[in-house]
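Lab meeting minutes (informal)
Scribe: AK
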Amino acid sequence: MNRRSVRRAFAVAVGILVVVGLAGSTGNVPHLINYQGRLSESGGNPLTGAYSITFTLFDDETGGSPLWTETQLSVSVSNGLFSVLLGSVTALSASIFEDNAQVHLGVSINGGSEMSPRQRIVSVAYALVAGAATDCWSFGGNAGASDNRIGTLGSQALSIITDGEERISIAQHGEVECYGSFLAQGIGSSVLAEGYSYSVAFIGNKEPDDDGLWLTSWGTGGDGDFIACRDMPDYPNSLNTSMKFRVDSNGNVRADGTFESPAADFAELLPAEDGLEPGDVLVVGQDGILARSSEPYQKAVVGVHSTRPAFLGGGGDDVDQTGKVPLAISGIVPVKATAVNGSITPGDLLTTSDLSGHAMLADRAVIGTVLGKALEPLDEGTGVIRVLVMLQ
């Protein structure tokens, strides 16, 4: 058969089977299309031999732009029939089928013109089930968006994409990342775990300056709580609960238990002069500004510059803390001390001294000058000791 007669031949698709894995899927899913066809002369006589066949995918039935093409140089044709795997020469990308509503196949023989008509690639019957996982609509999103889908993406086990942007991803090791908001009615989400001695949930933020958990309540001063922790001992036989911890919508905190902290004092943020340090014994001046103590038995003594308060009053996101320091008014605090008035033993009363910001042994009781009781000794010189602050 000469070249001229071959150019008059045409191919008729016998069957098309699409076996294309999503981008990033495992190597067990081949990115190939099994294509079978029949090649004959224009008069209908089947051909036999080896032929160069070019396959091209288009986004339109007649015109459009080529999406992919490959030429298989030596296709074996027997009595007109041949079978090839599209994608075996030039790799197929799953995005061709994800990004285009219609894909049509064009075929040409031995470098000749494209045969007509092009053949539309369609799914096999059970592949229609995959349509349930093809589209992913965001809350209030666009049903007509061009790129809404669920599938694997890169190294992710699962990705949900809306309007061309990844919204939720689940890594192969199970980590979940969300780039948006979850909105729901009633209980927005419910997680129940049993056994294995693990926490039910972990919530974190990879950005060090951002919040790890942000709870929002629409409205002001309502009855709903930001946080409600309840004991449900009779579940599932009874839904009766016992409130253990709550933060209500006004910011009030209630707990049926004990607050524990490695810190051990109660402090208030108050205006202070510059340069004060943790452990300084402080007095209040006539202008209400805190300063270091500077003489023995000062009646203006008010506490100690806290090192690490367990409770801090006078703070908050809406409070300007510029020029303020935490004043420990009760509890156990590291305090600068001097043995200038005699060695200090645990249980001794302490007062201010003439060494700036330092406490000393109170060898006489002067009402209004006692800072607290020593909990550690100081035999000589100066140092920092723990003191139970209790103004007297």
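Next up, CB showed the second protein from the same session:
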Amino acid sequence: MANAGWKVLVVLFFAIPLYLQIVQGFNAFETGVRMLPVSVCLFVTALVGSRLARRFAPRPIVRTGVALLVLASLLLLATIEPQIDTVPFALAMGVLGIGMGLIVSQLGNVVQSAVTEADRGEAGGLQYTGQQLGASMGTALIGAVVISGLIASFSAEVSSDPRISAGVQQQVGVRLDGDVSFVSSDQVRATAAEQGVAAEATDALVESYESAQLRALKTGLLLAALLSMAAFIATANLPGEPPGAAAAAEPRPAVRAAT
């Protein structure tokens, strides 16, 4: 579950800054402000989650968190547009923070309570390893999906646009066969100008690239939603009863009155 949770988190934290900084053109501070609802909601929910654990089993709490990750991914998918809509975006980020807060508030307790004092170091190390492995896998996966989606979508847009000549299309194809990175539309415009591309064709290239950017990012967010759904499988073996429920259910030994 730690592996799955951090995989989803990294996928979202890869796609969202790309949208804010590359597509919207925000600087690091502005990006941080717009991602602040995640941190605030995660912190508050993690505190509340520790209290919920006294009354509810870890499994339903974590499953609620996973469901909120799916919802956050779908909300972000609907929010990613050429112009950011601040309120729905902040709402989606808040839902993401609540979902992660419910998950992280339970996993540590589950891992540490399942072992003895002597094994807690190893258990914590395995949990951290699972998190880092999930983060690494998520980074590699989302990077491949977003860049591949960007190349495929941009190539299709350029090929179908009559404003772009065959020669320019060939140049774009050569560029896409090399190293491709997620850059701003201003950089695409500047590169086209350096290559002597006509103004009309340059505008067409920029429009095609901006459309391809949004498609690639939405593909990445769709991946996050699918990974979140798959994370439900990892919750199957989490404890299904609140702490102490098993002990309370055990019959107490009868006490005989002294005669």
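CB comment: The chain has two domains: 2-146+220-238, 150-212.
No objections, moving on.
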